[in-house]
Amino acid sequence: AAKAAGKDQATLYDVALRVEQAERMRLLERLRESVDAGEFAVHYQPIVSLDDDRPVAVEALVRWTPPGRPPISPDRFIPAAEDSGLIVVLGEWVLRQACADAVAWHRRWGTTLTVNVSPRQLVDPQFTTKALAALRDSGLPPQALTLEITEGVLVKAGPEAHQALLHLSALRSEGVRVAIDDFGTGYSSLAYLRDLPIDVLKIDRSFMPSDNTDTQQAALVRAIVDLAAGLGLTTVAEGVETADHADLLRDLGCERGQGYHFARPIPAAHLTALLADTDTDTIHPDPATDQDA
Ligand code: C2E
Ligand code: MG
Ligand code: MG
Ligand code: MG
């Protein structure tokens, strides 16, 4: 009986897998059409200085809203875009759009821009050329751009990691900064923090304590902040959802925070309004106009 049940489970699993593959194919087809149809938008989430809660940077986050359908989360379509290689085209579009949007914010308020870059983009031999073209065409200075990569990209030895390293080193020599995104969730070899061309650590949101009694999480955050400081890296905490989170991070000496406590990702025009409204100490985006709420 156990064997039969096991067999049934395997069959169910195969069916589930096929359904998932079929769904993924459909998703991909839609994605391909959508790049052409202009269904993508870039939203921006403020990154604040924890000294005074003022926005100093924005992260570009791509949004996909197929016509007549609810928005599809990047966590669903980015992996499909990566598998298919479409991320190379989509990522270049995001980078160009984000640089074009950010140049006005940078000129007026000194705001810097941070953009996610997928591993597939970094093995494209043209990546440095494309990134420099996006900067030049927009007028955004390289010093105002940070590229966010995940730990895995640079840690694996081999030609792909080598290509990625060449791009990051070339761009850094032009003034572009490099951030490790979701830090602490990947293959954390501490040696790479010392050896690799990086400037910023973004502490993954899974490290935020659930409440004030969660001292183990706080200890991990403290360790990461101290480590980064010792290596001369800037720290940004992701997933700052409460005033307690912000207080804790400030106490631990974390420089920057990003999360729903400060602001959600919002369209470019809303971000402009938010940056213009620098009179208040904390940012309160209008929930009525907040598409991500
Ligand atoms: P990420 O780069 O780590 O971006 C942060 C994610 O956390 C965003 O999700 C953001 O909306 C969400 N977030 C911000 N504050 C909070 C908070 O306080 N609590 C919680 N629970 N979440 C918060 P989003 O926009 O859905 O993007 C998901 C992921 O998709 C990103 O994670 C990134 O890995 C990827 N992604 C988004 N845009 C792009 C892009 O243009 N290119 C590439 N390659 N990846 C992208
Ligand atoms: Mg990111
Ligand atoms: Mg992240
Ligand atoms: Mg992430």
UniProtKB/TrEMBL annotation:
Protein name per Swiss-Prot or TrEMBL: Diguanylate cyclase/phosphodiesterase
> Could you tell me the keywords of this UniProt record?
Membrane, Transmembrane, Transmembrane helix
Which residues belong to any copy of the EAL domain?
24-279
Q: Which domain of life is it from?
A: Bacteria
Bias-annotated ranges (Low complexity): 285-293
